[in-house]
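User: Can you help me understand a structure? I only have the sequence.
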Amino acid sequence: MLLNEEPALVDFKLSTETCRLYSLYHSLHHYKYHTFLHCKRETDSIEQAAEDPGQEEVVQQCMANQGWLETLFNTFIELLTLSAKA
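Assistant: Let's start by predicting it. Here is the structure, written out as C-alpha cells:
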C-alpha cells in the first residue's frame, strides 16, 4: 500500500453479545468525558444566569440541583449494573 492510498474497508460480523459488550466498553471508556460535558453544560448555564459567580457559588448551585445530580448518579449506576452482568 502506498502512503497516499486509503486502506481497504473491511466488514466484521460480530455476534449480538459481542456488540453488546463492545457498546458497554465504549460507554465505560467515554464515561469520564461525557460526565465532563454534562458538568460543563451545567456550569456554563449557571455562569450565564448570574453575573460572575465565583467557583464556589457555581459548585454550590450544581450540588443543590438534585435532579441533575440524580441523573448523573443514575447513569453511573446503570453502567455499573450492566458491567456486573457482563
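Now, to help you interpret it: DSSP finds three helices and no strands in the chain. The two ends are 39 Å apart (CA to CA). Let me know which part you'd like to focus on.
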